[in-house]
Structure formats: C-alpha cells, structure tokens
Amino acid sequence: MSSLSRHLNKCLQPQAGSSNNYSDGQSLDPYYIEETEKQKHYTATVRVPHDKYDSFLNGANQLGDIRSKSSNVENLGQEYTDLNTTLQIYEAKEKRYLKMLSTITDDEQAIRVEKELTELQVKIAGIKTRMTEIQTDVDYSTIELNLREVTKYNEAPEQTDTFFQRLGNTVSDTWKNFGIFLEAMLFFFIRILPYAVIIGLIVLVVLWITKKRKWKRDSDKKEPDKFPK
Predict the structure, then answer these.
(1) Residues 6+ apart with CB under 8 A from 42
(2) pLDDT at 198
(3) CB within 8 Å of 204: residues ≥ 6 apart
(4) pLDDT value of position 31
(5) Integer Cα distance of 124 and 91 in angstroms
(6) Which residues pair with 143 in a beta bridge?
(7) Is 94 exposed, middle or buried (0-12, 13-18, 19+ CB in 10 A)?
(8) With contact defined as beta carbons under 8 Å apart, do 51 and 141 qualify?
(9) How far apart are CA 98 and CA 113, in angstroms?
(10) What is the rounded CA–CA span in Å between residue 6 and residue 190?
(11) pLDDT of the residue at 227
C-alpha cells in the first residue's frame, strides 16, 4: 500500500481533495491474526487535476492486476450556461432593489424590500457556489480506487494434466480442508465448554428433582397398603 500512497502524493496537488480508508481484513476479529493470514483492503477517492489524469491512471495500472475499470463523463456545460443566465437576471434585479431601497422613506415598505433583497442575495450566493463547484469538477477528475491484497499468488497456473497430478492435488486439498475443519471444531468446543457444563449441571439438577418427586409420589401411593383396613 505504500507505493500507492507515494503515487497519490506525486500526482495530486495540495488543493486537490482526497479521502482514503484502510482495513487489514480482520478489523472486527477479537483474536490475533497472523500477518500472512490478513487480506489488506484499501479504498481511496481522489481528485486529480485533468492534466494529470492520464499519468495517474498509468501509474495506478502498475500497482497490481486490474480486475475492473469504468469511467463516466458528465456534461455540465448546459447547466453552467443556465446558471450564468439566471445569475445575470438576479444581479440586475438586485441592483434595482438597492436603488429602490435608497429612495424609500416609508419604514414598512423598506422592510419588505429588504426582506426580498435578502432572499434574492441568498439565491445569488447559492448560484455562485454551484458555478464554483462546476468549475472545480471541470478542472479535476474524481477517481475511486478499490485495492485488495493478493493472499495467494501464482506466477502461472499450475499444470495438472495427468490423472495422478489431479488425484494428488485433490487428496492434498481434502486433508488440508479437513485439518482446518477439525481445528475450527476444536476451537468451537473449547468456546462452548463452559456453557455446556453449566447447562449440563442444570439438567442434572432438574432430573434429580423430578426423580425425587416421582419417588415420593410412588411412596405415598404404596403407603396405604402397609396398613390394611
């Protein structure tokens, strides 16, 4: 993952926004996991200047095996043009309100004009903010990266053309999986052992009480036979 960080720092300018997230694949596991058993996962969302877009992708392609890649281009030209036209209309209306406000002598009318002017200025500020966002989107490209560490690497696929090779691999994998199964079952029994002991004691107590009550009932039933009328 360090090579990716160096590549991000090389391609990004200081004003470009970015975010990233790292996980070792076992973040929620309460037990210690060997480094060789972890599958590291790294995600990043970066804003790359448009003139560095191609160089960034070329560098990212060298980080590993690309499994999927997609791109999306959004045309913001029409929205920017519409916003600019609306902004000109609002700014002209703002000037009229300001001129009107400077000549009004009635307090109530002045308050109404100030209220409308304030609402208009809020709209103008929102339009300018959106136009700035569009300009930033044009100058920068947003790239989302999703990287997973390879846990088992083979230079080339294994050739198992013969029957004995396939048989040997099958037997080896079977015993390996069986060993993993036994290990998992052992850990499972160790974890549930305290609970099993407690439940077993409760069952024994319940059986003993039940048996004692049954023996007492049987004794009560036989008691009249000892003293016949």
Answers:
(1) 1, 4, 20, 21, 22, 23, 145, 146, 147, 148
(2) 92
(3) none
(4) 62
(5) 7
(6) 46
(7) middle
(8) no
(9) 9
(10) 45
(11) 47
**Radius of gyration (Cα) for the chain, nearest Å?**
38
Cβ–Cβ contacts within 10 Å for residue 56, how many?
20
Helix residue ranges, H only, the chain: 2-11, 53-61, 77-103, 107-139, 163-222
Centroid of chain to Cα 81: 36
Q: How many CB atoms sit inside 10 A of residue 119's CB?
A: 10
Query: What's the full length of the chain, in residues?
Result: 229
| Res 14: pLDDT | 38
CA distance from start to end of the chain: 97
Neighbours of 104 (CB within 10 A): 14
Measured CA to CA, the distance from residue 39 to residue 23 in angstroms comes to 8
Tokens of residue 94, six digits: 């703002």
Residue 62, both tokens: 């060298």
* 155 backbone dihedrals φ, ψ, rounded to 5°: -60, -40
Give the mean pLDDT per block of 10 residues along the chain (229 residues). Answer: 51 51 66 67 80 80 74 80 94 92 86 91 94 84 79 62 79 89 90 90 90 78 54
DSSP state, 54?
Answer: H
Exposed, middle or buried by CB within 10 Å (0-12, 13-18, 19+), for 211? Answer: exposed
Interatomic CA distance for residues 178 and 180, integer angstroms:
5
Is 15:46 a contact under the CB 8 Å cutoff? no
